[in-house]
Amino acid sequence: MAVSTTLLAILLLPILLTTTTHAADTPFLGFPSPWTSPSNNSDSSWAAAYAQAVAFVANLTLTEKVNLTTGTGWQADRCVGNTGGVPRLGFRGMCLMDGPVGVRYTDHNSVFPAGINVGATFSRRLMRLRGEALGAEFRGKGVDVMLGPVAGPLGRVPQGGRNWEGFSPDPYLAGVAMAETIRGIQSRGVVACAKHYILNEQEHYRGSVDVRIDDRTMHELYLWPFADAVRAGVGSVMCSYNRINGTYACENEWTTNHVLKNELGFPGFVVSDWAAQHTTLGSALGGLDMAMPGDSGPLPYRSWWGGALTEAVLKEEVPQWRLDDMAVRIMAAHFKVRAAADNYTFRPDINFSAWTNQSLGYLHPSSNNSLATVNEFVNVQSNHAALVREIGAKSIVLLKNAASLLPLRSPPSIAVIGSDAQDPPSGNPNACPDRGCPQGIGMGTTAMGYGSGTAEYPYLISPASALRAYAVSHNISFTNPPSSSNSNWDLPAAVDLARNASVAIVFASALAGEGYMTVDGNAGDRNNLSLWENGGALIRAVAGVNRNTVVVLHTPGPVLVKEMEGNPNVSAILWAGYPGQESGNALVDVLFGAVNPRGRSPFTWAETEADYGVGLALMDHVPVGEDPNNERRPTPVQRFEEGVFVDYRWFQTGRGRVVYPFGYGLSYSKFRYADLRVVRREDVPGKYPPAGGMTGPAPTYGVVERGDLTKYTPPAAFERISPYVYPWLNSSEGFVAGGGGGGGGNSSQFPAAATNGSAQPVLLASGAPGGNLGLYEVLYTITASIKNEGEVAGTEIPQLVSPRIARSHADNMSSWGGEDNPWGVLRGFDEVELEPEETKTVTFELTRRDVSNWNTTTQNWEITDREKFVFVGSNVRDIHLNASLPAPVGMKWRIG
Ligand code: BGC
Questions:
Q1: pLDDT tens digits for range 296-308
Q2: Does 274 contact ligand 1 (Cβ within 6 A)?
Q3: Which of 217, 272, 402, 705 is the most buried (most CB within 10 A)?
């Protein structure tokens, strides 16, 4: 491992040195923290929810408001995150649960395919259905907030440990998936949480790394899917562990106040990642609204908020309007989703405990307090298994199918080889906590990654068991040794099996996960892009003796497949991602042709790690920077110098070798494209009216009485349980929190603007959730016809690529568009189901945002005057049709 890390560093060095460096033009605007108001958004469901929230918050005392903002402490209540409630008004605290593949730490739930599989479906329908099913399951357990979906990491580095929780390193695809998932979840009465905001692109140093990024890359790449999330009405956003341009994400006034709340007009609440909050005032003034898990701060409150926030408000270091805004945002998100779920007129009780499988347990486990029935074992799975299987099958990407070996047509015999095909040796797919152990040791087949993004399997259909069942019912001779003796290291045994079968199906996987666990020497991020557990050698050995070798990969992203792609005996390669509980059944559907493969790779497969152009920041090549927060440890600085050139955008520059491109995937059928038509909207000009004017002043609800502090201590008869976090002061005698409430400084350390509640100018690009409504106006409607010329029904995924800087129609992928724009980026896709000989028309809509760049000087989206084109094809490299985009109304192209 050490060798590959060092090698990577050496290989990357010249790349980093020659990469365009963007000017450090990031504006550090961001005070005061924007107060939400219905006037800065146009979505009527937010407006109604805001009114309800204001009515609710107007009745609250200071400590009741603080109670909504602060977690009660790790394991202090039954969920992974719990806020205080308002018992006086019968409002129980909120329950927050991971996410995103199913309800974590419970039972009788489903395990859905991972985000990366959902990305691979390129299907809005399946994205939405999965969101709805997830929402229904969280709702059924009494959860208020689902901690997902994920668009950060976006997937800058292919080794990133948590990329599989998200959808794709392409922001357009990720943005569509975010929006559909969020709409689905929230339609069932559960607040979705778009996480991790933002630039938490790797697990190494996630709690300290300082990401340096320019404003344009931020807008055009990493922010894009979060903008879609906000536009879709997401109720909450989780700020991440890392720093951005010197400041922690959870107190970063640029990313949170300026970009998210002001420019994107986010009306909901920002919740910290677990223990990602570092100060009382910095976080409050920097735009955080909810602190989780609540007890990660210093004494005397053991919380940065809770009593410390009450003190800070009483001392006027945090203005009352800021606290009121936190409470309104939290309650508005809550009321918005309750209203959205028409069928739900009540708020279900929490009916499980994340901390025990038993029915009896503590209501407050961290203090062993209040023994009660905590698990009711409510079955929330409904008929979701069918959807899990459908997404599993439709996310499988067929990378290679030489001589049309697939679909298999009743071969006399098949051998199933590899520990990744097997049932878990112990019989229990949940044997490893948070799935954090290698498959050979206890896990069997890989169908999810490890870390907090997991859920307990209700069952797991392994490929071996599904293939056995299929073979038995179809008279196919089947060999698969018992899992206990099926070691990837016993190559002679594998060769024996393979030699005697007409088709050898060999399985290999790679694990990735969250950095709090180290699996086989990998601390969350993968150490390399190799297959785990001798997978590469196993495939080589099997293919050495069987000409009909089918390779199945369960990986969180790319692995190095160049060798198998070139091996003539490897007839087929399928990437099945992390498919969830129906893994084996989904695979059988594709192998035997019940489902014609239609998944498309949501990332690029390169020849070597170095081809990706970026790598993990690891110990031996992290530039250690200055120490902005005066911590004892030096801060690792990670400069995103490649700008927008990640994944296929990078490969378009011709500087990396591709095996399978982004968007690639084969079918059992073939499709012909024709008749590209571009229609410009004559009523929509190229330039849109910027937002303007002023906000209202910050509203406050109720009056904070200072003087008599006994109001802010617990009622006389109240018995505190320790270590539960309360909103009360420790003493009515005076303030006890450290400077500014626990080492957080005092408000004089912030610009005066930070506490200024007067009316503020409205940003040009703002005006509605997701940004200025003009960004989403359709400028062009593009149509093409697609015909199924194969012999079987199939689904084609046409992809629209629209270059920012066009050169000529003859432009090809090996020549880069030049300047600092990618050659062309994904700006549309669809799923077109076609019977043999059938033709259908596909329609794409290009919005103003789709053809704009972020202008860092004007701080607005603008369509540049460079001539632009549009391409339609079956992936970003396989373009079948192209046309000019006429200049938008009121604009003229500069040609050449
Ligand atoms: C993860 C989050 C997760 C939280 C609660 C953190 O370590 O980064 O994604 O939601 O824990 O489990």
A1: 999 999 999 999 9
A2: yes
A3: 272
**What confidence tens digit (pLDDT) does each residue in 774-810 have?**
999 999 999 999 999 999 999 999 999 987 654 443 4
pLDDT band at residue 15 under the 50/70/90 scheme: very low
Does the active-site annotation cover 273? yes
- The first and second tokens of residue 17, run together, are 């040195």
- Which is catalytic among the residues 273, 289, 420, 423? 273
Q: Does the CB atom of residue 273 touch ligand 1 within 6 A?
A: yes
Q: Which residues pair with 796 in a beta bridge?
A: 832
Q: Which atom of ligand 1 is nearest to the CA of 200?
A: 8
User: The pTM is what?
Assistant: 0.95
Question: What angle (nearest 5°) sits at the alpha carbon of residue 37, between those of residues 33 and 38?
Answer: 150
Q: How far is the CA of 323 from the centre of ligand 1 (A)?
A: 24
At 38, is the pLDDT very low, low, confident or very high (cuts 50, 70, 90)?
confident
Rounded to whole angstroms, the Cα distance separating 838 from 835 reads 5
Q: Cβ(206) to ligand 1 under 6 A? A: no
Q: Whose CA is nearest to atom 3 of ligand 1?
A: 452
- Kindly give the distance from the C-alpha atom of residue 861 to the centroid of ligand 1, in angstroms, as a whole number: 33
In the three-class reduction of DSSP (H, G, I as helix; E, B as strand; rest coil), residue 866 is classed as: strand
367 CA to middle of ligand 1, Å? 22
β-strand pairing of 247-248 with 360-364: unpaired
Q: d(Cα 542, Cα 499) in Å, to the nearest integer?
A: 8
Residue type, 213: I
Tell me the H-state helices in 161-235. Answer: 171-187, 215-217, 224-231
Asked if residues 669 and 596 have their Cβ atoms less than 8 Å apart, the reply is yes
From 75, 98, 191, give the residue whose CB has the most ligand 1 atoms within 8 Å, as the site to mutate.
Answer: 98
Gyration radius of the chain over CA positions = 27
- Neighbour-count burial for 424-463, b at 16+ CB within 10 Å, e otherwise: bbeeebbebebbbbbbbebbbbbbbbbbbbbbbbbebbbb
Distance 753 CA to ligand 1 centre (A): 32
* Count of other CB atoms within 10 angstroms of residue 818: 11
Read off the pLDDT of each residue in 648-676 and give the average, rounded to a whole number: 95
Contacts of 256 (CB under 8 A, 6+ apart): 30, 33, 197, 239, 249, 250, 270, 286, 287, 288
Residues 527-553, mean pLDDT to the nearest whole number: 97
pLDDT per residue as tens digits for the range 179-205: 999 999 999 999 999 999 999 999 999
Query: Is residue 630 pLDDT above 80, yes or no?
Result: no
Cβ of 165 below 6 Å from ligand 1: no
Give me 438's structure tokens.
């290698």
d(CA 559, CA 701): 55
Q: Are strands 210-212 and 191-197 parallel, antiparallel or unpaired?
A: unpaired
Is residue 311 within 6 Å of ligand 1 at its C-beta? no
> Which ligand 1 atom minimizes the distance to the CA of 206?
8
Given this model, what pLDDT does residue 820 score? Answer: 66
Q: What is the total residue count of the chain? A: 896
- What pLDDT score was predicted for residue 652? 86
